[in-house]
Amino acid sequence: MVIIDGKKVSVDLQQELKAGVEHDRAKTGKVPGLVVIIVGQDPASQVYVRNKAKTCKEIGMNSTVIELPAETPQQELLERIEELNADPDVHGILVQQPLPRHIDEMAVTLAIDPKKDVDGFHPVNVGNLVLGHLDQCYISCTPYGILELLGRYGIETKGKHCVVVGRSNIVGKPMANLMLQKLEATNCTVTVCHSASKDIPSLTRQADILIAAIGKARFITADMVKPGAVVIDVGINRIEDSSTKSGFRLVGDVDFDQVSPISSAITPVPGGVGPMTIAMLLKNTLQSFRRSSGL
Ligand code: GUN
């Protein structure tokens, strides 16, 4: 059994991106710029946003965080996005979700120029992904990170049965659509299970590649997994644990202790899929810079 080390892959990838940024800077005198907007003070979002900005700087990109108060009117947010759309030094715009309830997330997504939508949430990018025009779109960072992990670990995908558990717009739907594309690292038969699916264990047991993105702690147990399957765990769930200083710890959507011995490869939580998400955001930002500079 192989433990897929997302932390290591993300560090390797950051080194490659850093070299890419430096190479382009020597050629053009410019570097990619990412702007992250956070509205309100959700503590988890603040941590994510800080990490995004920090990693961006570490690889030599420009990064700006715009912090807006929770009561910011939607119109004001849309106007800020318009300014960033028009700014040639900004190559990526990300508005951290969740947003306060008075703001319509779809209106915000639609306001971002698809060419700067490094989250890959805009319908133009989602549509191009579904159509297989991957050279013209940005892929949502978590599914893109999973693709990168499968590729770097040389996991065979062609003709395999990939079962995705979860149908969110950020992970489940783009993941399923990616895995059925006719590409080197995809080309699977794909099944998507969700809350209305009947007999989920009978579906997950058919998976050669099982991708769990449900947001329920240790939902996938050993009886739901075919021996030898590759198991990708997207979940990040807090559970109480009185033995830790904080009183909680993070677990995935997969019961790692039960499932890891029967899998052929598995991502741990933490240290699996999570670290890849930021790396892919930076990869998308560098890609946007290159596309806009004609590189
Ligand atoms: N909130 C949690 N994950 C994400 C993400 O990938 N992008 C944005 N914009 N918000 C998030």
What distinguishing features does this structure have?
single chain; 295 residues; alpha/beta; Rossmann fold; 2 domains; six-stranded parallel sheet; three-stranded parallel sheet; 10 helices; 16% strand; binds guanine
Q: Supply Rg.
A: 19 Å
How many distinct domains? Answer: 2
Low-confidence stretches: none
How much of the sequence lies in strands comes to 15-25%
State the CATH class of the largest domain: Alpha Beta
Secondary-structure element series: EHEHEHEHHHEHEHEEEEHEH
Helix content: 25-40%
End-to-end Cα distance: 41 Å
pLDDT averaged residue by residue? 97
From the helix content, strand content and strand pairing, which structural class follows?
alpha/beta
Q: What is the 3D form?
A: globular
Strand order, largest beta sheet: 1-11-8-7-5-6
CATH architecture identity of the largest domain: 3-Layer(aba) Sandwich
Largest sheet: 6 strands, parallel
Describe the 3D structure.
The structure is a single chain. By secondary structure, the chain is of the alpha/beta class. It is built from ten helices and eleven strands. A six-stranded parallel beta sheet has the order 1-11-8-7-5-6. It has a three-stranded parallel beta sheet with strand order 3-2-4, sandwiched between helices. It has a two-stranded antiparallel ribbon with strand order 9-10. Helix 1 runs parallel beside helix 10 and helix 6 crosses helix 7. The N and C termini lie far apart (41 Å). The model has no long low-confidence stretch (mean pLDDT 97). Bound molecules: guanine. The site of guanine has 7 residues, from strand 4.
